[in-house]
Specification:
The complex is a heterodimer of chains A (377) and B (288). Chain A has 377 residues and is an alpha+beta fold. Chain A has helices at residues 5-15, 28-38, 67-74, 124-130, 148-158, 164-180, 217-220, 230-238, 256-268, 285-297, 315-327, 344-351, 362-372, and strands at residues 22-25, 42-46, 59-62, 78-79, 82-83, 87-91, 95-106, 111-117, 135-140, 183-194, 199-201, 204-208, 241-244, 249-253, 275-278, 303-310, 335-341, 357-358. In chain A, the strands form 5 sheets. In chain A, strands 7, 8, 9, 10, 11 and 12 form a 6-stranded antiparallel β-sheet that branches. A 4-stranded antiparallel β-sheet of chain A has the order 1-6-2-3, with helices on one face. In chain A, a hairpin with a 4-residue loop joins strand 10 (183-194) and strand 11. In chain A, helix 2 (28-38) crosses helix 3. In chain B, the strands form 2 sheets. Chain B has a 7-stranded mixed β-sheet, with helices on both faces. A 7-stranded mixed β-sheet of chain B has the order 9-8-11-10-12-13-14, with helices on both faces. The relative contact order of chain B is 0.12. The mean pLDDT of chain B is 94. The chains are: A alpha+beta (377), B alpha/beta (288). At the A-B interface, helix 4 and helix 9 of A face helix 4 and helix 5 of B.
């Protein structure tokens, strides 16, 4: 789950990381009121869940008297398909130096890793590509945490200039915020050293670990459902792992690996999947019925491919769910199925004579559905 | 022969009185797995599936010799349960639970490794030595005893591959589902040496998927050390960047975890890659 910049900054401020004074505005008038309250140059920043806001024109400096007009241009703006509904109005900072500080969970070291770079204020993935030696990485012992001396050493190694204790202090506090909120990513970019020598988090980003949200009900409440695809919201209410994709073949299967493989097969056959939907293990007929209903509701879907390998999940339960959806008339597009494994024979018997195209293997089924939706190469 | 577990392995089930734990423990017993005891905090003194239930792993170990523990404890308490088993002295811990907080796993994996205990999972289907012992949630009937070692990040896709290998007459020695999470106890490269040394395993199939760099690390190990043929597979090759495909670990971040990088690593190590599950069988036959 992603947090907005202003929410991430609140978490940082709670740990004692200095952040510029700022408030959220939903209208140009509110933005003006906030800017006038500060009575100095402000930065008005679109609060949407995507990067590249600056390039898209969603971040602008404004004097208090310009703030209403600037905010009115940013509010309602479309950035990568998301409508800007609120802006952060924050005091502008005098930038002497811009650095990057971030924490991620690194799979190969199996640790939380600190990444620190002199190249701040720009896309860190770009830096990683063009100048990887400009990023210093440091893996943290999960039982000891990040200590002050370690942070100071990394600051020196990365060549950051400025008050060493303030820089290292901000980094240790960022780590504390990461752990306390069960984040999967926390970064300050840029970490600014001001003309006065202060260290300030001018921008911040925190992504939370979905698996740990149960122990952070206050953070879980911040999820903004309108930012997600409506079908993804409905799917999450059903407890499905669902991802909306941009093709026209609806895909349903049991097990993330099998569903990913099914997407690959549709692509190989020259088609484009409309979604990823994993019904999980041991799904009963009603779960399958809900899955079919959800996918059939997607206006992009011109055909549905259901790929089942029965293990804990029984193929006949899947068949029952599909048949129920057929009988209720909610499927208006062709359905191709492949069932194997547990209760395969029972499933085939149930599906006999039903308006479903049953194939013995995944490859043939994939070609068939792609032909049916007219997407064959 | 097999790796890690066989028909003599004495198994403890943590969470044996829960719905999932009881169901799967019963399936494991039916397969022939030797379950000696169970643990559920607060239910010590009861009996489940014909074996005694203890409050703690330490108590169970006072009364039984245990070679492996399998964990079906809810996500919030799962890492703690794995630590409990490791500290009590269980040498092999299989963590089935899905949805464990990642930072819990970062801390637990380090501590369990420091204790010299092997952890498999979390969020995994477990492992099975065909026709000997099942410590997991896979459908046992698709695994026929044979010549191929199988390692996978996926569940269902593993069953598909095992079924294809069984139907072809090749069969499997041991199959290990290592799990779909970003932080897991055992990776491909940890298991390859065991298969390399197992006299009955003649070839190994590695079913990888997008995300992370486990496949690249495994390929590097194979290139330097492996004496037996290895066949690869990569799931999620058509998945868009940055989207999490069910498994928390199956996500391409920047340039890490792309199918191109994995295919290249396999090619450099001389590992043939199957485009489809059925092709795995052809490639194994060709390699043997």
């Amino acid at each position: 789950m992603k947090l907005h910049e202003f929410q991430a900054k609140e978490l940082l401020a709670q740990e004692g990381v200095p952040v510029p004074a700022g408030k959220v505005a939903y209208t140009p008038e509110e933005a003006e009121r906030i800017a006038k309250e500060y009575g100095k140059l402000v930065v008005i920043k679109a609060q949407v869940y995507v990067g590249g806001r600056g390039k898209a024109g969603g971040v602008k400096l404004a004097k208090p008297e310009e703030s209403r007009e600037v905010a009115s241009k940013i509010l309602g703006m479309d950035i990568k398909g998301l409508t800007v509904k609120k802006v952060l109005v924050a005091e502008a900072v005098d930038i002497a130096k811009e650095y990057y500080a971030g924490f991620i969970i690194d799979r190969s070291t199996q640790r939380v890793v600190l990444m620190l770079s002199k190249e701040g204020g720009v896309d860190i993935e770009e830096v990683a590509k063009t100048n990887p030696s400009a990023i210093v990485k440091y893996a943290i012992d999960p039982h000891k945490g990040l200590r002050g001396f370690e942070a100071r050493q990394v600051v020196k190694e990365a060549g950051l200039e400025g008050n060493l204790n303030r820089l290292a202090g901000a980094i240790v506090k960022l780590y504390k915020a990461f752990v306390k909120s069960d984040a999967s990513l926390a970064e300050i970019n840029p970490l600014v050293v001001t003309d006065q020598g202060d260290v300030v988090a001018a921008d911040a980003k925190i992504n939370l670990d979905d698996n740990a949200l149960f122990r952070h009900p206050d953070l879980a409440r911040l999820r903004e459902v309108e930012a997600e695809h409506p079908l993804e919201i409905e799917a999450s209410n059903y407890g499905f792992a669902y991802v909306k994709l941009d093709g026209d073949v609806g895909v349903i299967g049991n097990g993330a690996g099998l569903v990913m493989y099914t997407l690959d097969l549709v692509n190989r056959a020259g088609g484009k999947p409309a979604n990823f939907l994993d019904i999980g293990g041991g799904a009963k007929a009603d779960v399958v019925y809900n899955a079919v209903k959800l996918v059939a509701k997607d206006p992009d879907v011109k055909g549905i491919f259901i790929n089942i390998f029965g293990g804990i999940t029984r193929a006949d339960e899947v068949a029952k769910g599909v048949i129920k959806a057929l009988e209720e008339g909610i499927i208006k597009v062709p359905v191709v199925m492949r069932v194997a494994g547990t209760a395969e024979e029972e499933a085939k018997k149930l599906l006999e004579g039903k308006p479903i195209y049953l194939y013995p293997n995944s490859l043939e089924a994939a070609s068939a559905i792609v032909t049916m939706v007219g997407g064959q190469k | 022969m097999s790796i890690l577990v066989n028909k003599d392995t004495r198994v403890l089930v943590q969470g044996i009185t829960g719905r999932e734990g009881r169901f799967h423990a019963e399936q494991m017993q039916k397969y022939g797995t030797k379950i000696v005891a169970g643990v559920t905090p607060g239910k010590g003194g009861q009996e489940a599936l014909g074996v005694p239930v203890y409050d703690t792993v330490a108590e169970a170990l006072k009364n039984h010799t245990v070679d492996a523990s399998i964990i079906f404890v809810p996500a919030a308490a799962a890492a703690d349960a794995a630590l409990e088993a490791a500290h009590a002295g269980v040498p092999l811990v299989i963590l089935i639970t899905e949805g464990i907080p990642t930072l819990d796993m970062v801390a637990a994996v380090k501590e369990i490794k420091d204790l010299g205990v092997r952890l498999i999972g979390g969020n995994c289907p477990g492992l099975i030595s065909s026709e000997e012992a099942k410590l997991g949630i896979m459908p046992g009937h698709v695994f026929k005893k044979g010549r191929v070692g199988l390692i996978s990040r996926s569940g269902t896709l593993t069953y598909e591959a095992a079924a294809a290998l069984s139907n072809s007459g090749l069969g499997t020695t041991t199959t290990v589902g290592i799990g779909g999470d970003p932080i897991i106890g055992t990776t491909f490269k940890d298991l390859l040496p065991l298969f390399n040394d197992d006299p009955e395993t003649e070839a190994v199939v590695v079913i990888g998927e997008i995300g992370g760099s486990d496949e690249e690390e495994a390929a590097a190990w194979v290139k330097e050390n492996m004496k037996k043929p290895v066949v690869g597979f990569i799931g999620g090759r058509s998945a868009p960047k940055g989207k999490r495909m069910g498994h928390a670990g199956a996500i391409i971040m920047g340039d890490v975890g792309t199918p191109e990088s994995k295919l290249k690593a396999f090619a450099e190590a001389g590992i043939p890659v199957a485009d489809t599950i059925d092709e795995i069988v052809d490639l194994v036959k060709k390699a043997l």
